[in-house]
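Quick start: what a row looks like.
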Amino acid sequence: MKKIILGILLSAFTLSSNATITVTDNPFYSDFEVEHPLFAKGTGGSQCKGLPRVCTQMVSCEQAKQALKCGNTKLDRDKDGVPCESICPGG
């Protein structure tokens, strides 16, 4: 009986107008634009658009550093703050 009541309550909650599901896509693995402060206009967001997603596509260490600042943490595998250690010295 408790399971039935719980099921009814969960169904009612799910169908209510206040229940919403928000999904945030990772901009480095998706073609969709994400509303995020790093990508907002006027806050340097234009510097984040169009950056390569992987180290082998980077043309310079500065580009890799910018991508890391924009949130692509996969560029810094050992978490020492130096992205793409094959092209950036100090890693």
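That is the whole record. The two ends are 61 Å apart (CA to CA). The chain has one domain: 2-75.
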